[in-house]
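2024-03-11 09:14:02 DEBUG pipeline.ingest accepted 1 chain
2024-03-11 09:14:02 DEBUG pipeline.ingest length=244
2024-03-11 09:14:03 DEBUG pipeline.predict start
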Amino acid sequence: MAEKGNPIYKRILLKLSGEALASDQGFGIDPDKAETIAERVHEVVKLGIQLAIVIGAGNLWRGRIGIERGMDRATADYMGMLGTVMNALALMDAIERVGVETRVQSAIEMRAVAEPYIRRRATRHLDVGRVVIFGGGTGNPYFSTDTAAALRAMEIHADVVIKATKVDGIYDADPKKQPSAKKYDHLSYIDALNLRLAVMDSTAISLCMENNLPIIVLNFWKQDALKNALLGNAEGTLIDKGNS
């Protein structure tokens, strides 16, 4: 166990769902939620950790609804990518208001509001202590923001992907519906893929497995959960190569 104030990771990629910014009704951008996320980010930065973020867009647009109505999949996905940039801008504003310099980079170029994604520029921002928020997904349809998070994490040489959720790890069943559900403290990539867990898509897990990039799934809203994980304390569920 790491000593207090001594993080075990230098650079992390935090994956947030769009719902993390949503109001209690599940849609839109709630300024209070943005401020809470900004406070968590500030805590990480104060530890001396370099932080990059990928955020989804489920609070603004759910592509599957359009697809169910006959919308072209690529069009639905591009709309979602644009939504992630809106969320990234809202999050940037909240983080900068707590005193942390932040940059948004978009895989879809829109120079009036965000930098284009350039890997070396992103790593330079991180090196000098800025938070970088990656918007626009991968820039390609048919790929989720989970996959974008795994891809960007590898490109910037992150030490770990933190998957932020509303539960304190991965369970073998929904703990809200089944109180007896078993929590996994540790899973191998292969086990995570075989269990077909809904917490992260299989493409993202496979990318992490191929590049030996660990994933920690935790309750982002639990006080100090993120900080505890980064200090090496037991928190959430760790997915790595295990014994497989």
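2024-03-11 09:14:41 DEBUG pipeline.report The mean pLDDT is 93.
2024-03-11 09:14:41 DEBUG pipeline.predict end
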